[in-house]
Amino acid sequence: GSTRYEIVATVPAGATHDDVPLMLQKLIIERFGLTFHREQKEIPGYVLLTGKSGPKLKAAIGSPASIPSRNGFPELPAGVAAGVIKVDSVGSVHRLTAGAMSMAQFADYLAGQSDFPVVDLTNLPGKYDIVLYYSKPARFATNSSALPADNELDLLSAIRDQLRLELQTRKLKVDLLVVDHVEQTPSLN
Questions:
Q1: CA-CA distances (angstroms) from residue 178 to 2, 24, 40, 174, 175?
Q2: Rounded Cα distance, 150 and 160, in Å
Q3: Chain-centre distance of CA 36, in angstroms?
Q4: Residue 163 in 3-state DSSP?
Q5: d(CA 27, CA 121)
């Protein structure tokens, strides 16, 4: 966990964006002697669902709209990058802004805020412009079916109250990549 490596590589002309991860994987296998296998495992996680009264989301149409000022936050101009989440703060309040984001992308973002996977089960098609205000980061816990909601500005509560989406704990079957062997010192070019 503490060893760092610098990999300098040149992507050949004509390679596509989709080719790069496969090239990087091949490089790591060759240089570090990486061997691995995949397996499925059931682990605790969350599912993202629509709330009982239906979602409260704004469908993205073309370039994301401007976001008006609120609670001391400045107005954001139109054109927040599609598929990107931006979080800015005024004092202890945070504003999460996402332009043209699918629910699967939003679930991936939420998973990145915790140590648990989040799977989109909303069945909501399309992309949405999302704006959330909250004062505390999410307190993800999988030891109970009830998510903490003692402060209505908690990120999870904001998702529930402002977007009318819910996160529920579940056992999830996920595909894992298990490293069988890797060399500490990579081979040279």
A1: 19, 17, 10, 12, 10
A2: 13
A3: 25
A4: helix
A5: 35
* Tens of pLDDT, residues 68-119: 666 666 566 555 667 778 888 888 888 888 888 899 999 998 998 888 899 9
Contacts (Cβ under 8 Å, ≥6 apart) of 127: 59, 60, 82, 83, 100, 101, 102
> Minimal CA–CA distance to 107: which of 140, 81, 74, 80?
140
H-type helices in the chain, by residue range?
A: 19-32, 103-112, 155-163
Residue 90 DSSP SS3: strand
Tokens in use for 20?
Answer: 């790069």
Instruction: Give the C-alpha separation, 183 to 187, whole Å.
Output: 9
Report the Cα 153 to chain-centroid distance in Å: 20
The pTM of the whole model exceeds 0.70: no
